[in-house]
Amino acid sequence: MDIDAWVWWLIGAVGLGIPLVLTAMPEFGMLSVGAVAGAVTAALGFGIVPQVLVFVVVSVALIAVVRPIAARHRDGRPELATGIDALKGRQAVVLERVDSGGGRIKLAGEVWSARTLDTGQSFEPGEQVDVIEIDGATAVVM
């Protein structure tokens, strides 16, 4: 039984797709696309040399072009602050006098206990303060 060259290329594409799924390495997917391009070249009746050249050119082009773009998008993604990290740097309104001994603020729609960063500093109700950090269940403000 004689199998056409384009079938071998598709088998190779599937073979390269398996490690892509198992390892999540996108390079295998790019090589798999190159193998599909080789299968198309074979189906159009070209010989083995053009098939291999198309495979190599498509695979290298995808790796050279797509990989840096994907890396840029992955690295350029800003970190998403969640939980108490999302509260640092926000502004709050003083509800009860805040000094080094304590007090109350309204932060992100909730009432929080608070204390000042500097011991000699105090804030009166209605003033805006900046949240420097969260210490347990207490906001440290200035």
Written description of the protein model:
46% of the residues lie in helices and 24% in strands. It has 3 helices and 5 strands, in the order H-H-H-E-E-E-E-E. The chain has helices at residues 5-23, 26-43, 48-75; strands spanning 91-99, 102-107, 110-116, 128-135, 138-141. The mean pLDDT is 91.
Task: Give the SSE map.
Layout: H1 5-23, H2 26-43, H3 48-75, E1 91-99, E2 102-107, E3 110-116, E4 128-135, E5 138-141
Parallel strand pairs: 3-5
Antiparallel strand pairs: 1-2, 1-4, 2-3, 4-5
Helix pairs in contact: 1-2, 2-3
**Poorly predicted tracts of residues:** none
Proportion in helices:
40-55%
Strands side by side in the biggest sheet: 1-2-3-5-4
Q: How many individual helices?
A: 3
Series of H and E elements = HHHEEEEE
Overall strand count: 5
Largest sheet: 5 strands, mixed, barrel
Q: State the end-to-end distance.
A: 82 Å
Could you tell me the radius of gyration in angstroms?
A: 30 Å
Strand content: 15-25%
Shape: rod-shaped
Category by helix and strand content: alpha+beta
Mean pLDDT over the full residue set: 91
Q: Can you describe this structure in just a few lines?
A:
The protein has 142 residues and is α+β, with helices and mostly antiparallel strands. It has three helices and five strands.
Highlighted features:
single chain, 3 helices, alpha+beta, 142 residues, 5-stranded mixed barrel
